[in-house]
Design a protein that fits this description.
The complex is a heterodimer of chains A (about 260) and B (about 260). Chain A has one domain. Chain A is built from 13 helices and two strands, in the order H-H-E-E-H-H-H-H-H-H-H-H-H-H-H. Chain A has a two-stranded antiparallel ribbon. In chain A, strand 1 and strand 2 form a beta hairpin. By secondary structure, chain B is mainly alpha-helical. Chain B is built from twelve helices and no strands. The chains are: A mainly alpha (about 260), B mainly alpha (about 260). Chains A and B meet through helix 2 and helix 9 of A and helix 2 and helix 9 of B.
């Protein structure tokens, strides 16, 4: 109920600055279109990388664009948590008798991200049409789970970066590596990177679970057992649980930034 | 001239204050460097592309990371803020040329940020093994031409930023227009992917445009992908582009400053 009020207020405030919201959305979409063109050029030169081609990579981009902007749109409060701390807004939130996560979610809803969400879905559809996979019921199910998994993992990363900013609010660019690094790594099926990067983004941050693992299942390729690839998105979703636990513990230790 | 030098110095010193920002910036640059080299190594699969080897690619990436601030097109937050809010009116009153003032501000900030960051990135990447690290320049003359073309490239980068300033004047928003200029220049200038890795037909187009002269040319002179005699020819073309874009920027900004109406008191 309360969230609906937050949503309405944020929407009304975005609607006050229609042109600004539109231009912001436009600018963000331009950046992403540039990135898609860059990947297209790279595949124009090399045709394939490992077992993957352009449309497999395009699907990966579609998944991360859609899920990342979706999470940015609704959970920006975690991504910009250091702002809440610096302005003292967090201290005010903590004394209110409403669950803190509710308030963080409601603190910022960015409607300008809708441009990127639409772009992400468009790219996904183009990729899926050209993918030449033998579709069946299970593959569609895995694909849907993959999008949900991607949202969970990105949300988990936002929560981690919020947790870090409880301890230090200085390292802004470092937090950027975690969020943007994760995003840009997943433009390609990540098993093309060197072993260490692949391991980090499989076992520490489970990018693989919405990336090459479900892709292997959909394409019916790869050396790993197919069932494992199929359930991998479910494992990826679990990532958000430890993130939330660590965040809650850290928040209990939070002492405020002063008056 | 002295007043522009003063503006340049102020921006330069101001940027040097942000050392912590520079350190985390360097960490970020290393992460991207390693990521990109791993990515393109996977694509190139130990092959050369028209004489562009993997170790040259690694050097291309590291030099790109070291001079990132210099080659990336952006506006100082102050500049766009002043135009959008109308405070730019104060600048009209000053007895110095608007274009030169903005030009020296941007040049000062770019140079100090680059000087603060690039030496550390260069030194550490020189120490890495040759397939993933930065190699030494192919010859002393190539190194000298690299420095010369890098300086001209920096001026060109600022000159293109000034075209973005003009677009902010026109649209009164710092978002759409600046992003458009910076994306086009990044894509066609070899920031998104190195130009030698683009398909041939796109390279043929990109080579005639000014954007590649910002950083692609200096880097390719350094790694020996562009020979000495070619380099001299291209530096000539680069200077021609620089003059054209500066003149264009001056005319456009002068015209829109004349038309600007400062509202309120």
């Amino acid at each position: 109920m309360l969230y609906r009020k937050y949503l309405k207020n944020q929407f009304l405030s975005a609607a006050q600055y229609k042109l600004n919201t539109f231009l912001t959305a436009f600018a963000q979409v331009i950046i992403n279109v540039g990135e898609v063109l860059a990947v297209w050029m790279l595949f124009g030169r090399f045709e394939s990388v490992g077992e993957w081609g352009f449309y497999q990579s395009l699907l990966m981009m579609g998944i991360i664009y859609t899920s990342f902007s979706f999470t940015e749109c609704f959970a920006r409060g975690y991504d910009e948590f250091s702002k809440l701390i610096r302005t003292g807004q967090l201290d005010r939130m903590l004394i209110r008798p409403v669950n803190i996560h509710y308030q963080i979610l409601g603190s910022k809803i960015e409607f300008s991200k809708i441009g990127r969400i639409i772009l992400g879905i468009t790219i996904s559809v183009i990729a899926l049409i050209n993918l030449n996979a033998d579709w069946n019921f299970y593959k569609v199910l895995v694909l849907i789970a993959t999008y949900i998994c991607a949202i969970c993992v990105v949300f988990g990363i936002f929560v981690i970066s919020a947790t870090i900013s409880i301890y230090t609010i200085e390292n802004y660019e470092f937090l950027n590596i975690i969020t943007n690094g994760t995003k840009e790594v997943s433009y390609y099926p990540i098993n093309i990177y060197n072993k260490w990067l692949t391991r980090i983004f499989t076992f520490i941050i489970p990018v693989a679970c919405f990336n090459y693992l479900p892709l292997s299942f959909i394409m019916g390729t790869g050396s790993l057992p197919q069932w494992l690839c199929a359930v991998s998105p479910l494992f990826g979703m679990l990532f958000v649980i430890p993130c939330m636990i660590v965040f809650n513990i850290s928040l209990k230790k939070y002492q405020g930034t002063g008056t | 001239m002295r007043s522009y030098l003063g503006i340049f110095k102020m921006e330069f010193k101001g940027e040097l204050q942000y050392r912590a920002k520079a350190i985390s910036g360097i960490a970020t640059q290393f992460f991207w460097g390693i990521l990109l080299i791993s990515l393109y190594t996977a694509f190139m699969n130990t092959d050369e592309v028209n004489g562009f080897s993997i170790s040259q690619m690694a050097s291309y990436i590291w030099l790109g990371q070291a001079f990132f601030v210099m080659r990336y097109i952006y506006l100082l937050p102050n500049t766009s803020e002043q135009i959008v809010s109308g405070n730019v009116g104060y600048k009209f009153v000053r007895p110095i040329d608007l274009y030169n003032q903005w030009f020296s501000e941007h040049l000062g900030q770019k140079m100090s940020a680059t000087l603060l960051r690039s030496p550390i990135v260069i030194i550490i990447s020189l120490l890495l093994p040759s397939t993933i690290g930065l190699s030494l320049p192919v010859s002393i003359s190539a190194f000298l031409l690299f420095i010369i073309s890098l300086i001209i490239g920096t001026l060109l980068s600022v000159a293109i930023s000034m075209l973005a300033v003009y677009l902010v004047f026109k649209t009164l928003s710092d978002r759409g227009a600046v992003t458009l200029v910076s994306t086009i220049s990044g894509l066609l200038g070899g920031i998104y992917i190195p130009i030698p890795l683009m398909p041939d037909f796109i390279q043929n187009i990109v080579n005639y445009l000014p954007f590649r002269y910002i950083s692609d040319l200096p880097i390719r002179i350094y790694i020996g992908n562009v020979g000495i005699s070619d380099a001299l020819l291209h530096i000539g073309i680069c200077i021609t582009w620089l003059v054209i874009i500066i003149l264009l920027g001056k005319i456009l900004i002068k015209a829109s400053a004349k038309k600007a109406i400062i509202q309120g008191g």
